[in-house]
Amino acid sequence: MGFKLAGILAILLMVGTTGGAWYYKDTQERLAILSENNAKLEVAVATNEAALESQRAAFESMRVENERLNTQFAAINDRNRALENRLSRHDIGAAMMARPGLTQNSLNRGTANAQRCMEIYSGAPLTVNEEQATKPSEINPECWRDANPNFNPDIQSEAWKRKNL
Amino acid sequence: MKHIAIILIATMGLTACAGSPPRRIEVSTTPIEKPALILPDATVLRLDEVEWIVITKDNVEEVFAELESSRKDAALVGLTPVGYEVLATNYSDIMAYIQQQNAIIAAYKNYYEESEQAIEEANGQLNNVESAVESQQQEETKPIWKVW
Question: What is this model's ipTM?
Answer without folding.
Answer: 0.73
